[in-house]
Amino acid sequence: MSATIKLMIVGIASTIKLMSNWVKSQQKQKKLEKEKLEIALKLREAELKFLKTQINPHFLFNALNNLYGLTLEKSDIAPQIVLKISSLLDYMLHDCNVTLISLEKEIQSLRDYIDLQKIRYGDEANISFEIDGNTKSMRIAPLLLLPFVENAFKHGLTKNFGKGNVKINIKIQADNFLFTVENDNFSKVDEQGRHGIGLENVKKRLELQYKEKYRLKIMSTNGKYKIFLTLINDIITQAN
């Protein structure tokens, strides 16, 4: 066998070995990347669950505190409060352990919460909740909207002993989901310190779940505190 042929055989063998090593290296790299992605997804899911568990006690503390005050007064509306809290608890405990939930269920949770506030404040407050567009077959991250609504009552009506205005609006468009909350703003001190656990958590959830496909604008002007949330394009997905 000539030296040239021997060199060719050695060269081919070396090339095959290099290619084999390269393929193994690529496979190992892809496996590592897959494992990193799986870990990242698990961490993201764990963080979302943690944020939601923080929202629930925050709401429950306020609701139960209100109920306690009514029971001390032996109020006739205390049983109605219990029923509404029970409905909200059922939603939180049994329906919200998913990434997306029916938009209509999320809206019903808002209605239950708003009804609680109407029972609490009676005719002293001007509360409106309007929906424009078809909400059927749409899905959204659970417990995403409630903190904004709770914030409006806490810093709007509660700070003014139940007197004032709260306006909530949901509008479904072809390419956008629009959610607005407006309430009277009664003090600059309140305006500066109102971003509590609920709002901070929902901001983190928006970053984790919606990334660049949402817009959140919070502003205070002309005695009004306003929140504008827009979820863009395919984020409000069609339900199966």
How would you characterize this protein structure?
This protein is of the alpha+beta class. The chain has one domain: Heat Shock Protein 90, CATH 3.30.565.10. It has six helices and seven strands; from the N terminus they run H-H-E-H-E-E-H-E-E-H-H-E-E. The chain has a five-stranded mixed β-sheet, with helices on one face. The chain has a two-stranded antiparallel ribbon with strand order 1-3. Strand 4 and strand 5 form a beta hairpin. Helix 2 runs antiparallel to helix 3. The termini are far apart. The relative contact order is 0.11. About 3% of the residues have low confidence.
Helix content: 55-70%
Mean model confidence by pLDDT: 75
Along the chain, the helix and strand elements come as HHEHEEHEEHHEE
* Portion in beta strands: 15-25%
Largest sheet, described in full? 5 strands, mixed
Give me the number of helical elements.
6
Tell me the name of the CATH class: Alpha Beta
Question: What is the rounded distance between the termini?
Answer: 69 Å
Q: Taking Cα atoms only, what radius of gyration do you get, to the nearest Å?
A: 27 Å
| Low-pLDDT residue spans | 188-194
CATH topology category name: Heat Shock Protein 90
User: In the CATH classification, which architecture applies?
Assistant: 2-Layer Sandwich
Q: What is the domain total for the residues? A: 1
Order of strands in the sheet with most strands:
2-4-5-7-6
